[in-house]
Structures are given as structure tokens and as C-alpha cells.
Design brief:
Layout lengths: L2 H20 L4 H14 L5 E5 L5 H8 L3 E6 L2 H11 L4 E4 L12 E6 L10 H11 E12 L6 H4 L7 H7 L1 E6 L2 E8 L3 H8 L3 E8 L11 H4 L2 H14 L11 E8 L1
Parallel strand pairs: 1-2, 1-4, 2-3, 4-5
Antiparallel strand pairs: 5-9, 6-7, 8-9
Helix pairs in contact: 1-4, 5-8
């Protein structure tokens, strides 16, 4: 296994026991992501999840009526996921870069919350993913955007330091204020289009989020409840449209296999 895979496995193994508790502030984004997944995938389909983490999305997609194969680089993440999905799904310890190990063809695939940011050769990933999906099937992926408009407000105010990392194009992943020797890369929507163009067409693009502050600022806790709900309603109206879906903190892309 490549050295970078080992680093990622170590980090995500370390994070697994506390991941769900640490990510409670992402619930409003996960609900949006799940609504989109349930819109594009239908009961009876066999899906592969790439980078399943602790199985939050898989649990809901199984309830939705899909059969889900869970994959992740971290064995410890898969152990937590098993507690959610039980015997209702197959779990496989596999880095995203080896996704072409499967010999079957899936009805669709999804990858949520930044797995693409942990892949070095994204073009190669799309080529491998293409080989295991049925023609015309969908791949729904969310990733951390390189060009987020809010950074130009939050950084000068001293609220976050993400602007430096995004401008550089990469940064070390932080857990509880400590940086680990594990790199996340920041890709723009145009980068993702370039990486995928030979294998997939893009059907739809959503902001996740644009208007609401990023999850790491914990807007659900800091904003008045009524104001938060108002922003969420506006967000749901604008998130599929340009320029919001190009300049969001995260982006969800609906790909269709060529």
C-alpha cells in the first residue's frame, strides 16, 4: 500500500471512535446531502459508497430501499459503520484509489463530504469508477471547494485560516486543534470537470452551503433558531444555481456515466 494510504488509514482509524460526536454540527448539511441522494437514487438499486466513514449515509440509503456496498480506507470506521448497518450491507476495507477491484457493475455510486479531496490522482479515480458503473448510472459526490467566497470575509476577521490552505491548494487535516501529517487537497469545480470529462457528464451542481456559514463555525448553535431556518429556506432555493453552486464552501455534483 502506498505511504499516503497508510497515513490516511492511521488518521481515520484514530478519528473513528469520536467522529459521530465531533460531526454533530454537520447535521444540517448531511440532511441536505441525504435529500439529494434520495432524489437521485431509487429503492432496489445496488450502490457503492466510496469512503463510507461511520455509515451515516449508508444507514439512511438502506432505509430508503437501496442495497449498499460500503468501502473505506479505515478499518475502524468500518467497525463503527457495522454497528449502524448490521448485516444489511457488505463492508470492504478498500481505498478509493482501488475502486476498480470490483468485477461487478453497480447501479450507482456516491461519495460524501470530501473523499475526493483525499485523492491525489482524481482523473485516474474517475476512470476506475467508470469501469464499475453501468452506462448511464449516476455518481453523486460532495467535495470541499477551493474557491469559497466566505473565506475572504472570515480570514480578515481572524475567524478561520482556510483561505491560506485553499489558495495553496492543499492543507494538513486538523483534529481537535492538532494538525496531522495527512493532506487534503482543494479542488475547484473546474478542476473536477476536467478530471471527469472523459468518463462522466455533469447533470446538476448544488451548493453545500453558500449562504449559511460552514459547519465548522457551528451556525446551528450560534445563530438564532428562526434566522437559521430562514437562511436554510433561502439556501434550498438558490443552491442549484450559478454563481452560488460554484462559490460554495462545499459542492455536490451529480455525474452521469458516459
Amino acid at each position: 500500500m502506498k505511504k499516503e494510504f497508510v497515513k490516511h488509514r492511521f488518521f481515520w482509524d484514530l478519528y473513528a471512535p469520536i467522529y459521530d460526536e465531533n460531526r454533530k454540527h454537520e447535521e444540517y448539511l448531511r440532511n441536505t446531502n441525504l435529500n439529494i441522494l434520495k432524489t437521485y437514487f431509487h429503492p432496489g438499486q445496488t450502490l457503492i459508497e466510496i469512503g463510507c466513514g461511520t455509515g451515516i449515509e449508508a444507514e439512511e440509503m438502506i432505509k430508503h430501499g437501496c442495497k449498499v456496498i460500503l468501502t473505506d480506507v479505515s478499518f475502524e470506521m468500518l467497525k463503527v459503520a457495522r454497528t449502524k448497518v448490521g448485516s444489511n450491507a457488505q463492508l470492504i476495507n478498500l481505498p478509493a484509489e482501488y475502486i476498480d477491484s470490483f468485477k461487478t457493475k453497480f447501479d450507482g455510486a456516491y461519495s460524501s463530504f470530501g473523499v475526493l479531496n483525499c485523492i491525489t490522482d482524481v482523473s485516474s479515480f474517475f476512470q476506475k469508477l467508470h469501469s464499475i458503473l453501468k452506462p448511464g448510472s449516476l455518481f453523486v459526490a460532495s467535495f470541499i471547494n477551493r474557491w469559497y467566497w466566505g473565506d475572504f470575509i472570515f480570514f480578515p476577521l481572524g475567524i478561520t485560516n482556510y483561505l491560506k490552505k485553499r489558495l495553496k491548494g492543499w492543507g494538513y487535516i486538523t483534529l481537535d486543534g492538532k494538525e496531522y501529517n495527512v493532506i487534503a487537497r482543494f479542488y475547484s469545480l473546474n478542476d473536477i470537470k476536467k478530471f471527469s470529462k472523459d468518463y462522466f457528464t455533469i447533470k446538476k451542481i448544488y451548493a453545500l452551503p453558500f449562504l449559511l456559514p460552514p459547519a465548522y463555525l457551528k451556525p446551528q448553535e450560534r445563530l438564532p433558531k428562526g434566522f437559521f431556518k430562514l437562511l436554510q429556506k433561502i439556501e434550498n432555493l438558490i443552491n442549484p444555481y450559478f454563481p452560488f453552486n460554484y462559490l460554495a464552501e462545499r459542492i455536490i455534483v451529480i455525474f452521469q456515466r458516459s
